[in-house]
Design goal:
Layout (H helix, E strand, L loop, with lengths): L22 E8 L16 E2 L2 E2 H11 L5 E6 L4 H11 L4 E6 L4 H12 L4 E7 L7 H10 L5 E7 L6 E2 L5 E3 L7 E10 H11 L10 H8 L6 E4 L10 H16 L6 H8 L3 E5 L4 H12 L3 E5 L1 H4 L6 H15 L4 E4 L14 H29 L2 E5 L12 H21 L5 E7 L2 E2 L1 H7 L8 E2 H12 L7 E4 L29
Parallel strand pairs: 1-4, 1-6, 4-5, 7-11, 12-13, 12-14, 14-15, 15-16, 16-19, 17-18
Antiparallel strand pairs: 2-3, 6-10, 7-10, 8-9
EC number: 2.7.7.60
Organism: Micromonospora globispora
Catalytic activity: 2-C-methyl-D-erythritol 4-phosphate + CTP + H(+) = 4-CDP-2-C-methyl-D-erythritol + diphosphate
């Protein structure tokens, strides 16, 4: 006898079964070719802040506890590139790296086939949005308990106009009802599959995003919108590369400080070599790191007779630290000199000293340090100043060498990534150090950053996983610092070039 499933007219409709997904899958859409950026490689492979854009993006979903699995849809011909990035970074949640389709919609269909049947949460995210936050990922997944489709958007700060084929305005929608869409876009698997099933029968089907497919072909389905963020930009145009790089710098500078116990856990047993460690920031960094258990070896011209521009002096310093502890985890270069004066009036000896200490020295230290840092997967930390962004009159060579160190940082971060060695650069604002006092005299206390604050920020970078970044260090609001008198007998060449900004 066949069971009758007919519902009586007055019967109460059954409540829908609660949503019980078996897993949550993040689909990283990396099919772009980089044409608008004018690149010869897909834009998701372009490096920002020392890593390919797609690696930054994958790291967010790898770290998100809400995500169980990651599938990458890569541009045609570049699947091996993405596979190498996944392998080198050790991303364990990535289960598949496959070729995407010719269009966004075709790529989504490929992703759905790769995921397979069953009830699954699916998040589609642009690979070239590397600054998506953990908060956005979490809220997308949480919203799927209530809604079957979820979008991410931010309010429009600009007035949006609608135009006709002659570029004449036909309408100006009310801005308060408008949002700028971002990703991820999240769905219950049954919903997005059904939307695409219905779209297959439409010969005029075209959509630029997956929520648009649901909106058009499942019009009765509510699509929940959660708040995105201004930082969650899509790297599409050349200016976006620079914006994203700066946003990573700001995020690094705003990283929360650890507790004393955590600093001790991170630094105890590590060996740090500081070139230029007698005064100013180098001295404060030495004392701070020792307080947390690191073995620190400071070298300078006055205390150890170490000239950073001499390869034999640098080699001897590194050998001393290695023989004492059997390892070198971090090499810090705070040595630098600031000589003021018009370039046309500067004597040859002064120019040679400035160029050799400020640039040849860091280059020499980098070359000599690599074999040691390879063993520990350590970090080289350099220092620039705000003058690297625009040369300053009367210290042109100083500004030029600081710009060179920024380029050196970014280049070495790329070169040394295969060795697991990180390279970063600190960019402090005007800092109260003996070198600055010697060059500029006494200045109002409230206008200068303390050397200790720069040392603390430097320590945070050393124990981070950052690489290829120029980290700005700025005074906290209301911070007061004491003027630093020049140390008796201190030579400018032993001081940190502490963010001179005239």
């Amino acid at each position: 006898m066949t069971q009758d499933h007919t519902t009586a007219p007055d019967a109460t409709p059954a409540s829908p079964a609660p949503w019980r997904p078996s897993r949550t899958v993040a689909v990283i859409l990396a099919g772009g070719t980089g044409i608008r950026l004018g690149l010869g490689i897909p834009k998701q492979l372009l490096k920002i802040a020392g890593k390919p854009i797609i690696e930054h993006t994958l790291a967010v979903f790898e770290a998100a506890p809400e995500i169980d699995e990651i599938i990458v849809l890569m541009a045609t011909g570049h699947v091996p590139d993405a596979q190498r990035i996944v392998a080198n970074a050790g991303f364990r949640k990535v289960t598949q790296v496959i070729e995407g389709g010719d269009t966004r919609n075709a790529t989504t269909r490929i992703a759905l086939d790769a995921i397979g049947e069953g009830d699954v949460n699916i998040l589609f995210h642009d690979a070239v949005r590397p600054l998506v936050s953990a908060r956005i990922v979490r809220e997308c997944v949480n919203a799927l308990w209530t809604y079957s489709a979820v979008d991410v958007a931010i309010p429009s700060a600009d007035t949006i106009i609608q135009v006709d084929e002659n570029d004449c305005i036909t309408d100006i929608p009310v801005r308060s009802t408008l949002r700028r869409g971002q990703t991820p876009q999240a769905f219950r698997s049954g919903t997005i599959r059904e939307a695409y099933r219905r779209a297959e029968g439409d010969p005029d089907f075209a959509a630029t995003d997956d929520c648009g497919v649901v909106l058009r072909y499942l019009p009765g389905t509510p699509i929940k919108v959660i708040d995105g963020s201004d930082e969650n930009i899509k790297v599409t145009h050349p200016v976006d590369v620079h914006l994203a790089d700066k946003l990573f710098q700001l995020a690094a500078a705003q990283a929360p400080r650890l507790t004393d116990r955590r600093y001790s856990e991170e630094l105890t047993g590590r060996t740090i070599v500081v070139f230029g460690g007698s005064y100013g920031i180098g001295h404060d960094l030495t004392e701070l790191a020792r307080r947390y258990g690191a073995q620190v070896f400071p070298f300078s011209r006055s205390t150890t007779g170490t000239h950073v521009e001499r390869a034999e002096d640098v080699a001897a310093a590194l050998k001393t630290a290695f023989e004492a502890t059997g390892r070198i985890d971090h090499v810090v270069v705070t040595a630098g000199i600031l000589e003021k004066g018009a370039l046309a009036e500067m004597d040859e000896e002064t120019m040679e000293r400035l160029l050799h200490v400020n640039f040849v020295g860091p280059v020499t230290i980098a070359r000599q340090s690599l074999p040691y840092l390879q063993q520990t997967k350590g970090q080289l930390l350099l220092y620039t100043s705000s003058s690297y962004t625009r040369g300053r009159a009367r210290y042109a060579l100083y500004s030029a060498t600081k710009a060179a160190l920024v380029n050196l940082t970014q280049a070495l971060a790329d070169e040394w990534a295969e060795f697991g060695v990180r390279v970063n650069c600190i960019n402090p604002e005007r800092t109260a150090t003996p070198m600055r006092t010697k060059a500029f005299g006494e200045e109002p206390e409230h206008t200068l950053l303390s050397a200790e604050a720069v040392a603390q920020a430097s320590l945070d970078v050393l124990i981070s996983e950052l690489t290829g970044q120029v980290i700005d260090v700025r005074r906290a609001p209301g911070e007061q610092v004491a003027a630093v008198p020049a140390q008796p007998g201190a030579q400018a060449s032993e001081q940190l070039s502490a963010g001179v900004d005239a």
